[in-house]
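Thread: quick sanity check before group meeting

JM: Hey all, I'm pulling together slides for Thursday and realized we never actually wrote out the predicted structure for the chain we discussed last week. Dropping the sequence here so it's in one place. If anyone has concerns about the input, flag it before I start.
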Amino acid sequence: MHYNSKRGFALAVLTAALLGAGQASVAATAGDKAVLIRDAMVFDGTGRAPYAASVLVEDGRIAAIGAELTAPKGARVVNARGQALLPGLFDLHTHWTPNATPSELPQVANLYMAAGVTTVSDFHEPPEAYAPRRAWLASIAAPDVKFAARMSTPLGHGADWGDENTTRWVNSPEAARAGVRAVAAYKPDFIKAFTDGWRYSNAADNSSMDEETLTALVDEAHKNGLKVFTHTVMVKRGKAAARAGVDVIAHSVQDGAVDDELIALMREHGTAYAPSLAVYLPERVDGSGRNNGKPDVLAQREQNFANALHNVKTLHDAGIPVVVGTDAGMTGTPHGTSTLRELELLVQAGLTPSEALLAGTSASAKALGVNDRGSIEVGKRADLLLVSGRPWERIGDVRNTQQVYVAGRQVQGKGAVLPAGNKALALPAQPVQALVDDFERADGRTALDTLRVDEADGGNDRTAQVTEIVARETGGNALATQAKLSSKDTAFAATILPLSRGSVAPVDARAYRGIRLELRGSAPELQLEVRALGNRRFIAPLQAGAQWQTVEIPFTALQGQPPYRAKAPVAVWKGDDLQQLVVSGSGEPGSKLWFEIDNVSFY
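JM (edit): ok, ran it. Output follows.
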């Protein structure tokens, strides 16, 4: 099959329209009326002591700072007497995962804005999703989201789920350089390298990245203008990461106390430290228990956390830049509020409230490599947080949010008006063409111009799977999947056909009655799964033999399932919120299976 020009044109128009609409709405809100924030106590993020001043915002930037500013004609005046004005906060380590609660992009964006977080790094998205997610974010009010390209070792942390379209697997300098060049084509904002396989003595270790590979990865990333953050949690791995020249260690080193050698290496190579304390709390950020009924695991967590607190203070006192990242989106670490909890934990570790605020503003901006924000200075982007109290003296006052501005646009507090998209769960669904994939393209993309993805059970003991295009005896091609299942009862192998680029925007299939595909194979259990927005799933069993057969599955035959990891009613079919078609096979642990599919379409 040749490239579908109509489909490609439609995707391009949709993305351009979303980007255009988002930029226009932000520009209009930020630029058609100036804002004078009058008589605030300004903590400007430069290290200067807080001072009384007014701040004028025009066209999304800080136009003037002074004690006697006059509001331009038509400007909105905000009386901030008795309130503190801070730069917008950063969270350099989050996961906007579809398995978290909430999972929808607008809801997560709202939580960060409510907490005063105006720049966020998302470590979770596959490169294919960057462009459509950027388009979606541009169409609503949202913090500025930076995307990390994920790289790990085979069976390393971060590569123990998904395939290489989500996390690149590298285990040599040559593979690292090739991997960086491959992901750089998607224009990530930086790279996240999962280099340390230690699992905190709570689980079997994953594989770790050797120093030679990491050094090549960092060198190639820097050649491509990309910073490198690492998942590093051991002292010895921290030394390797620093020697390799990584820009930020994005987890706490917690298997023991940091030493003079690690400090010297981090200082020499300019490595910053984002301890992500919130995710390591022995109890959850919301105060509920963690690891109930497992006292040995809880004791290990408590020791690791004590090491983490000690190490962040030691590194800070040694002059290593400490920045803010939380691992929010992981279990017990909610979006938005975890960033504020992280500031409190930095103070608990021994930083002053002012030092914690600097970590969450200007130091984080520098570590991320964005020089247009992070402090309140003329010409900087007007990312601003207005709170009641004096958070440089009482860090908990940072929770007293009054107003939040992103690029001069008020997004939180009295007077904020958000686009309708901030309340919706999805972009408007676009009609989907009938043919999903006939596997005639040689570039790994479907007939919808989306990138096919493999999926299998995760973990160290993981199903080994190979999916490739094969020739059919009667002409044309099919997609063949072969797998050796892991030893787990839940072992499976699957191929995913995204219905939109990166499985981000939904599609509308209400013009059709069902799904048709050609199928053959040898697997004890086969099924078709349709995935929709909100973690909603629908499945139907499939039957296959050695000979090709055409199978039709009416939408009415698809059975709704509960969301992953959630106690909720089974999904109800809508048809206008679809994201993926998935064909999967399972069987006895350790067994082998195969299946082939062709001409997948709606009918």
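AS: nice. The chain has eleven helices and 30 strands. The longest strand covers residues 592-602.
JM: adding both to the slides.
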